[in-house]
């Protein structure tokens, strides 16, 4: 493969296979976010059905249990919203804000606070789900 310089890019001389790998990487990340958004729609339906099932049950022994489960389910759902938001923010940053050419989009990264917030959201979701399983 020969190295090429592309018009109006600040990219170093890259081979065709390297450029193809960059585009495949960006395409995979974009498809992952689209798929996550579609799965989030399914997750919304599952949460709605679960909340209906929990609300329609008659708990004679422990009246606080359904309130706790509804609270945890809603909290996990809100944390999933944040996770989807962070994924969309990353793709908007890559494709729209830094999308003037492929090299700038490839080398752009999110700021550390956004990555930290996404990590905290994932840790909280895991801990809440595990604590609910242990408690129940």
How would you summarize the topology of this molecule?
Blueprint (H helix, E strand, L loop, with lengths): L2 E2 L9 E2 H41 L8 H33 L4 H6 L4 H24 L1
Antiparallel strand pairs: 1-2
Helix pairs in contact: 1-2, 2-4
Structure description:
Keywords: Membrane, Transmembrane, Transmembrane helix. The chain crosses the membrane at residues 33-56, 68-86. This protein is an all-alpha fold. It has one domain. Helices cover 76% and strands 3% of the residues. The protein has four helices and two strands. It has helices at residues 16-56, 65-97, 102-107, 112-135; strands at 3-4, 14-15. The chain has a two-stranded antiparallel sheet. Helix 1 packs antiparallel against helix 2 and helix 2 (65-97) runs antiparallel to helix 4 (112-135). The longest helix is centred in the N-terminal third of the chain and has 41 residues, at 16-56. The chain is elongated and about 70 Å long. The mean pLDDT is 82.
By helix and strand content, what is the structural category? mainly alpha
Inertia-based shape: elongated
Count of separate structural domains: 1
Tell me the strand order in the biggest sheet: 1-2
Biggest sheet features: 2 strands, antiparallel
Secondary-structure element order, N to C: EEHHHH
N→C terminal distance:
60 Å
- pLDDT below 50 for ≥5 consecutive residues: which ranges? none
How much of the residues is beta strand, in percent? under 5%
| Average pLDDT figure | 82
Tell me how many strands there are.
2
Total count of helical runs of at least 4 residues: 4
The proportion of residues forming helix, as a percent range, comes to: over 70%
